[in-house]
Automatic annotation (TrEMBL):
GO terms for molecular function: hydrolase activity. Belongs to the GmhB family. Residues 8-120 form the Glycosyltransferase 2-like domain. It comes from Thermobifida alba (Thermomonospora alba). It comes from the Bacteria. This is D,D-heptose 1,7-bisphosphate phosphatase. Pfam families: Glycos_transf_2, Hydrolase_like. NCBIfam families: HAD-SF-IIIA, Histidinol-ppas. It is found in: Cytoplasm. InterPro entries: Glyco_trans_2-like, HAD-like_sf, HAD-SF_hydro_IIIA, HAD_sf, Heptose_bisP_phosphatase, Histidinol-phos, Nucleotide-diphossugar_trans. Keywords: Carbohydrate metabolism, Cytoplasm, Hydrolase, Metal-binding.
Amino acid sequence: MPRTDYAVVVPTVGRPSLRRVLRPLLEAAPEDAPAEIVVVDDRPDPDAEPLVLPDAPLLRLLRSGGHGPAVAREVGWRATDAAWVVFLDDDVEPPADWPRRLRADLADLPDDVAGSQGRIEVPLPDGHRPTDAERAALGLRGARWITADMAYRRTALHRAGGFDPRFPRAYREDTDLALRVLDAGYRLVRGARVCAHPPRPGGRWASLRAQRGNADDALMRRLHGPRWRDRVGEAPGRLRRHAATTAVLAAGLAAAVAGRRRLSAVLGGLWLARTAEFAWRRTSPGPRTAAEVTDMAVTSALIPPLACAQRLYGELRAARLAGAEPPLRAVLFDRDGTLVEDVPYNGDPEKVRPRPTARAAVALARRAGLRVGVVTNQSGIARGLLTRAQVDAVNARVDALLGPFDVWRVCPHAEEDRCRCRKPAPGMVEDAAAALGLRPRDCAVVGDIGADMAAAAAAGARGVLVPTPATLDAERRAAPRTATDLLGAVRLLVDAHVPDRAEERVWFPSRG
């Protein structure tokens, strides 16, 4: 069996089970071992105790800032180079032969197969029938395309644009990616490898916290249409029933306030009957202990209104994300640190190196029908460190590697000149928009520092920050939007602001 070039990405929130995930990968035979393992620490506290990982040359640790598993996986896979990227959760238990069986699953897959899912086994609890929380974990056994154990071709990830950072929880972000990969013309298959996923106790009120998923379902509906569940083989949820129960409760309370006692009593009885039926559905398969019955009774009364509230929040959020602002017509990129590596006062075209995903980002903007331009501060001219001819030569090299760009605007002044064009002033953004026949509000500015975002805000344009090590924490916090890389920034803009194109999935070359 030929060696398979694969990397493993494991997002973590610091669970002790992480070592059990890593052990079979680190102990695998050389012909079965991954090219590298990237652990992405997604704990939000920057001062958290550092993770202690085994000392291994193929193991790397990155941080993603606590923005959720979608961002953590994005940070992880984009830091690798292997042909296949395998995502594992930090609470699965791959057996010792998992690397060998993974290789067998991936060997000789045809080019139109973009992904291979491992089988997830959730052991039944010993000595009792599963509780409501345990049954939720058991549902992983039949779930499709979940990233608890999922391998994707790198080319498919690039073509689909990777994980969508608008999914903030470990819920639906993997389904969203799978549907976009399928939309790109690929197939997904199930492998023969197996991972165990022990039920994780969620606490007494885990079912209430789970209702936050209704907000993510609203985004799924917005992105993939009302029948997206059919495509992943998932049964309809209970939201309509919850909405009816909540409406009965609200009507009963309104009748009571209005003094209509008989109507209030009838509606109260109907609400009680619906709630009892829901509680019995959740209680009957389980152990029926006193604690479980009590929890089911209380949470069954709270879940319907909570689910409806979360769905309403999700619909409002999805509508805002999907294009509340005017249609976007152009993207204006900063140059140094954004499109190309920042070489201080660079006057040598041979030193121009595109930033990761820069080519794909500019190409995506063009496929979406957007104009593209560059707005760049070049104070080296005013300081005598560069000539305008040198700057123009470097710009020509950038244009040759990443363009062509529709407009260039260069500020040659130093900060002390107090010109109106140097970012954070709005002049270059306004001039570039005018040259394209647009208003600044029709444009977005993508850059790596706060001055780029301030120039966008001052001109009335949109801004997306793509942080680098040079970006200050205060600039990150103040940014209106952030993305992990250029492609993510443009994808965020395209999906949220390009009018009447969402159904075309414009970032897929085969559909653009």
